[in-house]
Write a structure and sequence with these properties.
The protein has eleven helices and ten strands. By secondary structure, it is of the alpha/beta class. Strands 4-3-2-1-5-6-7-10-8-9 form a ten-stranded mixed beta sheet, sandwiched between helices.
C-alpha cells in the first residue's frame, strides 16, 4: 500500500544563504512530504516580512498555490541579502494564507494535525523555541529534523575537527530549549552537510530545465540574484554548498543512504554539540554511504524525473 505523505513544517531563514532556496525547491518536488506551512526565521530590518516574501514568491512562481507562509520572529542585525529578489512580488497576491505570526501558525498546525508533524528546521531554532514556550504540548505531536551541530567534523576537508555550527551558535538558548523538549530529534550535522556541491553533468541537467520547468527556473533565478550580491559568477558551473537540502533528503529517505548514530548531546556556550553522558538522545547522520546517490536524488527531483 502506498504510504501517506508526511505532514511537514519548514522553518527556514531563506534570504540569507542560497541553500535554503534550493531546499525549498527540493521540498516542492518530494511527494512523500506534505508541506503544511513554511515559516521564515530571523525576520528583521526595515521589512519584517522580507523573508516571507521570498518564500512566497518562490512557492508561487514554482507553480504551487496551496502552502501557507508565516513570518517568524524579528531579530536585530540579521540582514536579508536576498530581499531584493522579491521586491517585485506583491505578497497580497499569494494564493494561500500569509500569517504575520508564523510562530502561532506553527503551533496551530501541529496542535490541529491528526497525525504527528515533522518540523524540518534549516535555520537557528528561534521560532521553534518560541513555539515551545507558548505551547509545550507541540512536542507531543511533532518530531524535529534539523540542520545543526557537528559530531566528529566541521567544515574542514584536510583535518578532522569539530566546529561550532551557525544554526546552533546564532541562538544557543533556543537550541537548548528545543533539546530539552521531549520530542524525537534527528540532526544532519556539518559532518554530512558541509560539502554538498552539485556540479558537472548533474548541474547541467538542472540548468537545461531552466526554460521549461517552473521549479528549476525559480530557484535558478534566486541563485542568479545571490551570485550578483556576492559577485560569484563562477557558480555558473556548480552550486554552493547545499547544507539544508540534506534535511529534506533525510525526511524522505530516512537512513537509506546515511549512517546514523545515536548520541547523548549537550550544547556548550560556544555552540558546540558535545557528547555528554547527561545529554539528551539525538539521532545523528554522521557519514554518507554514497554521496553520488544524494546528488542524483537532488538532480532527478529538481528536474521532475
Amino acid at each position: 500500500m502506498e504510504k501517506k505523505p508526511v505532514p511537514v513544517i519548514l522553518d527556514t531563514d531563506i534570504g540569507g544563504d542560497i541553500d535554503d532556496s534550493w531546499a525549498l525547491a527540493l521540498l516542492l518536488r518530494c511527494p512523500e512530504l506534505d508541506p503544511k506551512l513554511v515559516v521564515t526565521a530571523l525576520e528583521g530590518g526595515d521589512d519584517p516580512i522580507a523573508r516571507a516574501k521570498i518564500a512566497a514568491k518562490q512557492i508561487a512562481k514554482s507553480g504551487r498555490c496551496d502552502i501557507p507562509v508565516g513570518a517568524g520572529l524579528c531579530v536585530e542585525d540579521e540582514s536579508c541579502t536576498m530581499g531584493g529578489w522579491a521586491d517585485d512580488y506583491d505578497i497580497s497576491t499569494y494564493p494561500a494564507p500569509i500569517y504575520r505570526d508564523g510562530v502561532q501558525a506553527m503551533i496551530d498546525t501541529v496542535m490541529n494535525s491528526p497525525e504527528p508533524v515533522t518540523i524540518i528546521c534549516i535555520a537557528p531554532l528561534t521560532n521553534v523555541a518560541e513555539a515551545l514556550r507558548r505551547e509545550p504540548r507541540i512536542a507531543d505531536n511533532a518530531r524535529i529534523i534539523a540542520i545543526m551541530g557537528s559530531i566528529y567534523n566541521g567544515h574542514s576537508l584536510d583535518v578532522i575537527q569539530k566546529a561550532s555550527d551557525y544554526n546552533v551558535r546564532a541562538d544557543i538558548p533556543s537550541a537548548r530549549e528545543v533539546f530539552a523538549a521531549p520530542w524525537d530529534i534527528t540532526i544532519a550535522p556539518l559532518d554530512i552537510t558541509a560539502h554538498l556541491v552539485v556540479g558537472d553533468d548533474n548541474y547541467q541537467h538542472i540548468l537545461a530545465k531552466r526554460e521549461s520547468d517552473p521549479v528549476c527556473n525559480t530557484v535558478l533565478s534566486a541563485f542568479d540574484r545571490w551570485m550578483e550580491v556576492h559577485n560569484c559568477t563562477y557558480y555558473k558551473t556548480h552550486t554552493t554548498s547545499l547544507y539544508d537540502t540534506a534535511a529534506i533528503y533525510i525526511a524522505v529517505t530516512d537512513d537509506y543512504n546515511v549512517i546514523m548514530e545515536d548520541h547523548l548531546l549537550s550544547i556548550d556556550d560556544g555552540g558546540y554539540t558535545n557528547d555528554d553522558p547527561a545529554g539528551r538522545p539525538v539521532r545523528c547522520a554522521v557519514y554518507w554511504k554514497y554521496k553520488d546517490v544524494f546528488y542524483k536524488f537532488v538532480t532527478d527531483r529538481l528536474c521532475g524525473r
